[in-house]
Design goal:
Blueprint: H1 2-9, H2 13-33, H3 37-50, H4 57-78, H5 82-95, H6 100-195
Length: 196
């Protein structure tokens, strides 16, 4: 409105306003090239206020806003917060659909998110496999201990049985020996009585 009002009051001022607008815009372009998107955006908005019909005004604003949003997305991307990065890159593309850098960043963030999810899934699978392996080792260890205990028990029973049999054999042999000796004494006594 101020631009149109200035032209109505001073038709010769058009050249001055166009030059002023071009100068402001050009300074914004230089700042934008140096990565100072916020300052560039302010200058682009000022140039557009001078002339709402400025041909590149709205585009320059879109580009600067898109780059600001894209840069915020890169901060999340660099911190491996891919969900947030994806949201910012999508917003950057919505604001400035021509931004191929934001499109590339979005594709890379989606790829990294998939890789991160796959990595987490593989890590979870590894943990589960490791847990199963430990459980299997523990089960095998318990089985070995149980087999060892049973074998020791079997051997102990065999040893006790052999000892009992040996003691029985010895006791029987001793009893037979005592019986033999007793029988011999009785026979000797009977022989002694018979000789008398």
């Amino acid at each position: 409105k101020s631009y149109r009002e200035a032209l109505r009051l001073n038709p010769n001022g058009r050249v001055f306003l166009l030059n002023l607008q071009d100068g402001i815009n050009n300074k914004g372009v230089a700042l934008h090239k140096n990565g100072d998107y916020e300052s560039a955006l302010r200058l682009f908005e000022e140039a557009l206020r001078l002339n709402p019909d400025y041909p590149n005004g709205r585009r320059n604003i879109r580009v600067a806003k898109g780059h600001i949003i894209n840069r915020e997305g890169l901060e999340y991307f660099n911190n491996e917060d891919y969900d947030s990065a994806i949201s910012y890159f999508e917003e950057s593309i919505r604001v400035n659909p021509e931004d191929q850098t934001a499109r590339g960043n979005l594709a890379e963030a989606r790829k990294r998110k998939r890789e991160q999810a796959e990595s987490i899934q593989l890590e979870d699978q590894w943990r589960k496999d490791e847990q199963r392996r430990k459980e299997e080792e523990e089960r095998i260890g318990r089985e070995i201990e149980e087999q060892k205990r049973k074998e020791e028990e079997r051997i102990a029973k065999e040893v006790l049985e052999q000892k009992r049999k040996e003691e029985e054999r010895i006791a029987k042999a001793m009893a037979e020996q005592k019986l033999k000796e007793a029988t011999q004494r009785v026979n000797n006594m009977l022989d002694g009585l018979a000789k008398k």
